């Protein structure tokens, strides 16, 4: 059996150390900081929360030097090189803008913002100030995504015809409020659907058509949706997300000469199998040692490299790709009839 191309992703331990400010110390921030501590040389310099006590407890847990009871204090700390925005989707635009206006580089949790207009505002501001800005779609920075990139770019499975990806988790109605509340930009799409949509954009590039069907909750956010996309070459993506039940969360990339199957969850460090047209296994990429969210260290390492090298965006996941993903999700929400307060 042949092997797939080796990932070219640098070891996160080799990334230069920069000083991180963590804005909003919640669940994902805890996972992010744990990944930094266990798999990088990055420094967790400061924690910012609306509650000083919460910031201090989080800072103590991760040995951060400073704790602040406001986001304004965090972004203005001269000892912070880059701010990681880890709040709910509804707050990303305001808080990332706060950090950019303070002259800080920013890594913003996915989904980048509520909508494309907010995303374009942040991108325009970062570019005007020559500041680094990256969406923390951690999957795009993982080693197995680089394997997929090489397979697609080198035509190892022929011309791409179809992408399949699903991401279903049982998070409603008994899950976190941020998923059910329209004011917090809730729903399956921005939290779960962003993964298959971003994966399809990664493989197919710009979408030329988007068709969506879905179901809404009684509060008006989407509980699930199926999205079909096409690109200029006629390749299609069939993408599903739901917060009502659990799926295998796998992905496949099909081409005229073979296909790739990605193990679930496809957006976490995982294995890849390549098959030829006769469905014979011809290559395999083994899952790397990272378990689950330990893979968050790769996006942090990329941000640290970009910042140290004076780059204002990541070539691995450019801002224009983030904008395309946000525009696609706007299109899906428009078809489903989902609007957030204030839009």
Automatic annotation (TrEMBL):
Keywords: Oxidoreductase. InterPro entries: Gfo/Idh/MocA-like_OxRdtase_N, Gfo/Idh/MocA_domain, GFO_IDH_MocA-like_dom, NAD(P)-bd_dom_sf. Residues 19-134 form the Gfo/Idh/MocA-like oxidoreductase N-terminal domain. Residues 148-260 form the GFO/IDH/MocA-like oxidoreductase domain. Belongs to the Gfo/Idh/MocA family. This is Gfo/Idh/MocA family oxidoreductase. The lineage of its organism: Bacteria, Bacillati, Actinomycetota, Actinomycetes, Pseudonocardiales.
């Amino acid at each position: 059996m042949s092997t797939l191309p080796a990932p070219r992703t640098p070891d996160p331990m080799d990334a230069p150390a920069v000083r991180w400010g963590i804005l909003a110390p919640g669940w994902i921030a805890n996972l992010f900081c744990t990944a930094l501590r266990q798999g990088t040389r990055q420094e967790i310099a400061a924690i910012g929360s609306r509650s000083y006590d919460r910031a201090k407890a989080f800072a103590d847990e991760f040995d951060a030097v400073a704790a602040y009871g406001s986001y304004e204090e965090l972004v203005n700390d001269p000892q912070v090189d880059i701010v990681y925005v880890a709040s709910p989707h509804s707050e990303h635009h305001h808080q990332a803008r706060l950090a950019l206006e303070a002259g800080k580089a920013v890594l913003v949790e996915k989904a980048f913002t509520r909508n494309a207009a907010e995303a374009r505002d942040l991108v325009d501001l970062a570019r005007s100030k020559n500041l680094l800005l990256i969406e923390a779609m951690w999957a795009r920075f993982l080693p197995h995504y680089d394997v997929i990139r090489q397979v697609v770019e080198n035509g190892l499975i022929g011309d791409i015809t179809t992408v399949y990806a699903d991401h279903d988790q049982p998070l409603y109605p008994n899950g976190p409020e941020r998923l059910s509340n329209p004011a917090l930009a809730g729903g399956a799409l921005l939290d779960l659907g962003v993964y298959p949509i971003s994966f399809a954009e990664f493989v197919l590039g710009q979408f030329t058509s988007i068709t969506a069907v879905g179901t809404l909750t009684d509060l008006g956010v989407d509980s699930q949706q199926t999205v079909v996309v096409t690109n200029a070459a006629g390749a299609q993506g069939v993408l599903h997300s739901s917060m009502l039940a659990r799926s295998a969360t796998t992905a496949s990339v099909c081409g005229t000469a073979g296909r790739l199957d990605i193990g679930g969850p496809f957006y976490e460090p995982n294995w890849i199998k390549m098959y030829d047209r006769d469905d014979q296994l011809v290559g395999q990429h083994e899952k790397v040692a990272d378990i689950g969210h330990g893979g968050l260290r790769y996006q942090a390492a990329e941000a640290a490299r970009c910042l140290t090298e004076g780059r204002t965006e990541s070539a691995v996941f450019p801002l224009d790709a983030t904008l395309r993903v946000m525009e696609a999700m706007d299109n899906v929400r428009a078809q489903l009839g989902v609007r957030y307060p204030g839009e």
